[in-house]
Amino acid sequence: MHRGKVLKSIINSHPDSGKIIAKRAGYEPGTLYKHYQIENLSYQIITKYAKAMWRDLSFEFPEIIKEISFQSFKQEYDKRNKQLNAETAYEWKDKYHRLLESHNEILKMNMNLKEEIRILENELKNLKREKR
Fold this sequence. Notes:
Layout: H1 3-12, H2 18-25, H3 29-36, H4 43-53, H5 68-131
Helix pairs in contact: 2-4
Coiled coil: 103-130
Keywords: Coiled coil
């Protein structure tokens, strides 16, 4: 596998530009384009790009897991993602509870309105009877 080409494909699909990713990784944009040409690009360099994109690249580069700098990044990445997932779950749970409360309020109002309609219909019937 040509690691430089795989990296290029990953970076091109990222929402940030290659220039921004290169600078975050500590490289000049020209160096990034040179890295694209290297078939056996080192995993240390690839790890820097993984950190710059905040992306786990172990799917695309399974051997990268052996790289010590990637292992520490992967631990931090997994920890942060776990925290983000917990926060997201809490936000959805909170939103669900708020919507459920609103729904219950609407149901109560609907029941009250139905009761008022029933009472008014009865009053209307009584008025019609009295009129006869």
